[in-house]
Specification:
The protein has 493 residues and is mostly helical. 65% of the residues lie in helices and 5% in strands.
Length: 493
């Protein structure tokens, strides 16, 4: 019976294998260059703007530039991320255009993530596995949509996966991996756990002096985050306390017993059911065919799930986005199920595997065509750009600007607060949410923005079932002074 012998038996492949990999890398670089060109065109065809959390990073960065202490508390204000504030301060120097550059940075981070996934799959398995993993990532549109909306999760993913790539390429790479994880730890605290695990790994064969240096590198993320909280709020653990209370208020907490049941549905939402099934098959195949090569993707999967569980235990928000690193590892294992036959010598087993993979790809294409609504994504992207332009047009109306001398600007709820503050360069006490009971009771003069489009209502007005519907009802005596496709401005002086 034919054996499923690996093409490469050790770390030094033959000349023919090297030539094949060189050709594969050349094709990958060409494809990646075309992908970058496509994203550059899309950046201008579908102009999008940062999401709610990222706008706050820009606002806090602008406050730092103005030599003001950023204010991390308020009505539904998100948790701060120190590296996001640094980036926000740099982009605030560009003025109002800084928000578009923020999106450009997250799109570039997504492209870096695509290349990192290719490299991880290539190093751990074969070039085809890497290429298939990158293709699967590109077809998980939710990930690209996070980039188009400027989510900090995207650069976080890129930093973590590139750290894995460096370690996979040269085991115990040391400080470069620590630096990437430290930067990631200034965007998301899950990277602190990864840095801690890497410290333990590096310490196994290190001297006590080296262990001390590794401990210092691993502590960069949590120490700088705590120092930021302490300097601004006086509480080094402010982010932990604030995020926990916000999660409870928003109903995003899960008990320890609920977390295991949430994992399958969250993974299915992130990578979709066929890919999830393929990834499980890929894990089995990798364990049987080449267990040593699966170490790094498996580490990302296990640590990603582990940090997700720790987040739940800490009482923080438990949402599917916090499983994205583990989901990326699943994409690599799904790629093993599809392209892992390249690890075998030519023969009947390899041919059968190729045929089965071809059938799975055909099924995946049919599933995507019948289940993915491309128009929905196009409409979402267009709305993000059109709504921002419409809001800017209303806010810059001369009558609105005159009305701001009579009182603050109010918007239905928290969703439009950071956008409005960024557009008008206003302080936190000048743009308020009417969903806040104190604002609804005390503000009687100024400018009020109301959402007029049915589509926008569910994005920027009725996003929380606990909000009073009257946040969308203009009070008697207020005069409508400006309108656009999505918003109307009322003034009372």
């Amino acid at each position: 019976m034919e054996s499923a012998t690996l093409t490469r038996r050790g770390p030094n492949p033959g000349i023919a294998a090297r030539l094949r990999e060189a050709d594969a890398d050349t094709l990958a670089r060409i494809a990646f260059a075309l992908l970058c060109l496509g994203f550059a065109i899309g950046f201008f065809v579908y102009p999008t703007y940062p999401n709610y959390d990222s706008y706050y990073s820009l606002l806090w960065g602008r406050e730092v530039l103005d030599l003001q202490s950023p204010f991390f508390e308020g009505f539904r204000v998100p948790t701060e991320h120190p590296l996001g504030i640094v980036a926000g301060a740099a982009l605030a120097l560009l003025g109002e255009a800084g928000d578009r550059v923020w999106v450009a940075m997250t799109l570039a981070s997504f492209l870096a993530l695509v290349w990192a996934i290719y490299r991880l799959g290539r190093i751990a398995f074969t070039p085809l596995v890497g290429a298939v993993a990158a293709a699967l990532l590109l077809t998980r549109f939710d990930f690209a949509f996070l980039a188009a909306r400027g989510y900090i999760d995207v650069p976080y993913m890129a930093l973590v996966v590139w750290a894995a790539v460096l370690e996979a390429r040269r085991p115990r790479a040391g400080w470069p991996v620590f630096v990437l994880l430290a930067l990631g730890g200034l965007l998301r605290p899950e990277a602190w756990v990864l840095a801690g695990l890497y410290f333990l790994w590096m310490s196994l064969k290190a001297t006590w002096g080296q262990r001390l240096r590794y401990a210092e590198l691993a502590a960069i993320g949590p120490l700088l985050w705590a120092a930021t909280d302490l300097a601004v709020t006086g509480d080094a653990l402010f982010s932990l306390h604030y995020t926990s209370s916000s999660a409870e208020e928003l109903g995003r907490q899960r008990t320890l017993g609920e977390i295991p049941s949430a994992l399958p549905s969250f993974f299915a939402s992130l990578v979709k059911v066929p890919v999830l099934a393929g990834s499980l098959a890929g894990i089995v195949v990798a364990a049987l065919v080449t267990p040593r090569r699966m170490a790094m993707p498996l580490m990302l999967l296990v640590s990603g799930i582990g940090t997700f569980v720790l987040v739940g235990i800490a009482g923080l928000s438990v949402i599917e986005r916090y499983l994205i690193v583990a989901a990326l590892a699943l994409l690599v294992f799904a790629a093993v199920a599809l392209g892992g036959f390249t690890m075998l010598r030519r023969g009947r087993v390899r041919t059968a595997w190729m045929a089965a993979a071809g059938l799975l790809v055909a099924y995946g294409i049919v599933f995507t065509v019948t289940h993915v609504n491309v128009n929905r994504f196009q409409n979402e992207l267009r709305f993000r750009g059109d709504a921002h332009i419409a809001l800017s047009r209303v806010l810059h109306d001369p009558k609105v600007e005159a009305g701001l001398r009579c009182g603050p600007l109010t918007v239905p709820n928290h969703k439009l607060v950071p956008d409005s503050r960024w557009i008008l360069d206003l302080g936190r006490d000048r743009v308020l949410a009417r969903a806040d009971a104190d604002v609804a009771r005390t503000v009687t003069k100024g400018v009020a923005i109301y959402v007029t489009s049915r589509f926008a209502l569910f994005k920027h007005a009725f996003t929380d079932p606990d909000d009073d519907p009257r946040i969308q009802v203009p009070p008697p005596g207020w005069q409508r002074v400006a309108t656009s496709d999505f918003y109307a401005a009322y003034v009372d002086c």
